[in-house]
C-alpha cells in the first residue's frame, strides 16, 4: 500500500482530476502539481470558471446541445438551414462537426446509442423528441451521424424505421477511407465499408 504524500485536499484534487477522460492517476498528479504551482495564474481562474459553468450551463431543450442559453445559440441562429438536422450521439460529436464547418444546419443529440446489454433503450434516448421535431414540419433531410459501431448501426436502423412514415430524406455519413489515409494501414472493416460506398469519378 502506497503512503500518502499530500494532504487530503490535494489527494481529493488528484482523485477528481483522474476521473476526467484522458487523465489517469499519473497524469492527474502532474496536472494537480501544475495547478498548485500556478495557483494565481491558473487554479483560481479555473475554479471560478468551473463554478460559473456549473451554475449556468444547461442542456438545450430543443436539440440537446449544452450552452448557457436555452434554446442554445445554434438553435436560435437564423442563418442556419431549418430543413436539415444532423443526428449525433453526443455533444462532443456535434462540436466536432461544427469545427469541421462543412454544413450550416441544425442538430439533434441522442444522448447515446441503443444498447440492450447496457439497458439503453429508445426511452433512454431523445428519439421521441427527434421524431416530434421532424413531424412538426420544415425538415427535408435527417443526416444520421452516429459512430460506425454495432450499437451505432443498430441505432441508425432504428431511427430510419421511426422516420420512415414522415416522408423525408434520411441519409448517413459515408464510411471508408479517410482523407490522407493509406490503404495498408486501414482495418478490414473500414476497407469493406469503403468498397461498398464507392462513388463514380
What does this structure look like?
The chain starts with 7 loop residues before the first helix and ends in a 5-residue tail after the last helix. Helix 1 crosses helix 2. The protein is built from seven helices and six strands. It has two domains: about 50 residues, RecR Domain 1 (Helicase, Ruva Protein, domain 3), CATH 1.10.8.420; about 110 residues, Dna Topoisomerase Vi A Subunit, Chain: A, domain 2 (3-Layer(aba) Sandwich), CATH 3.40.1360. With about 200 residues, the chain is an alpha/beta fold. The chain is globular and about 60 Å long. Strands 4-3-5-6 form a four-stranded parallel beta sheet. Strands 1-2 form a two-stranded antiparallel sheet. The model has no long low-confidence stretch (mean pLDDT about 90). About 15% of the residues are buried. Helices cover about 40% and strands about 10% of the residues.
Amino acid at each position: 500500500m502506497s503512503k500518502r504524500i499530500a494532504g487530503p485536499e490535494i489527494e481529493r484534487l488528484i482523485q477528481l482530476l483522474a476521473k476526467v477522460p484522458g487523465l489517469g492517476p499519473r497524469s492527474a498528479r502532474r496536472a494537480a502539481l501544475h495547478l498548485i504551482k500556478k495557483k494565481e495564474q491558473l487554479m483560481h481562474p479555473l475554479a471560478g470558471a468551473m463554478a460559473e459553468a456549473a451554475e449556468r450551463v444547461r442542456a438545450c431543450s430543443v436539440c440537446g446541445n449544452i450552452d448557457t442559453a436555452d434554446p442554445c445559440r445554434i438553435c436560435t441562429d437564423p442563418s442556419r438551414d431549418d430543413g436539415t438536422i444532423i443526428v449525433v450521439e453526443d455533444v462532443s460529436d456535434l462540436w466536432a462537426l461544427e469545427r469541421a464547418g462543412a454544413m450550416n444546419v441544425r442538430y439533434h443529440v441522442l444522448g447515446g446509442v441503443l444498447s440492450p446489454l447496457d439497458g439503453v433503450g429508445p426511452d433512454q434516448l431523445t428519439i421521441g423528441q427527434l421524431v416530434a421535431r421532424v413531424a412538426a414540419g420544415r425538415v427535408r433531410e435527417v443526416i444520421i451521424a452516429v459512430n460506425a459501431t454495432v450499437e451505432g448501426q443498430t441505432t441508425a436502423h432504428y431511427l430510419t424505421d421511426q422516420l420512415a412514415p414522415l416522408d423525408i430524406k434520411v441519409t448517413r455519413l459515408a464510411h471508408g477511407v479517410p482523407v490522407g489515409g493509406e490503404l495498408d494501414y486501414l482495418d478490414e472493416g473500414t476497407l469493406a465499408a469503403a468498397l461498398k460506398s464507392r462513388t463514380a469519378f
